[in-house]
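hi! just following up on the protien thing from before. the input was this:
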Amino acid sequence: MKVPFSLLETHCYVYADRPNYEAGYETQLDRLLSPEEADRFANWYGNKLQASDRTPAATYFVSWLRGFAGAAMTTVACGATLDWSLSNWSVLSYEQGGYTRFAFYAHDSTVIGSPKVGRERWMQEQLDGFFGRTLAPLFRSLSQAVSVPEIQLWRLQATGLQYFVQYAEKELNASDAAALRRLSEYITAGMSPAHFGLRTNPLHISIRMIDNPYEPGGQIAMKAACCLAFKVGGSGYCYTCPRLTSRQRSLMKEKILAGQQA
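and the predicted 3d structure came back as:
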């Protein structure tokens, strides 16, 4: 029973204690369930993104929540868990490298071990609770605040978590990596839609692979939903955006490759 906090801090931006950052925005996560606080956050983050409207505040924040969810999955895969209730966690923003980043920290980081008997079901139950009682209410609040469909936020989370698992399993020992893969399969194919408050499991997606111009000869997964980057100041459509036509993606690939050769 060991929580890999070094991995969580480096790749999930999840901390056992408050990190020493000067916060631009900071709140306890359960406060984001309040329409007033969710609205305040959307206004603040939308302005930081220089977005044409507030919708990217939700889609971009979901990309940071991927780390939070990945931390919960990794911890459980390692045979332990923390109190993942929203009231036990806060989020803060900080500036680094010209970008606004987010970190999540626990108020109580007491480690809870897994049982010796029935561990597999215990792991699944931990994630049932995390997705159903922690992430789902937060996604619902963000969705309502900026009028972005919940399913769009979950689809972005689905793609992001698949990226995360592919990376994280390389950082774990064989046993924990195998457990993480099983948990990834469970949340996408075995978890009840009831935990999401939806009619279908939004993490159950088909992955479409496309050419990866950043690693010629390789492939990269297309996003399952648009992150609305085209609404953000100085940005455009992502190469992996599902809204692009094949022609548009081909032209973007040519530009990326030309830039690498310049």
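Residues 119-146 form the longest helix (28 residues).
Helices lie at 5-12, 35-48, 55-77, 119-146, 150-168, 174-190, 246-261.
cheers
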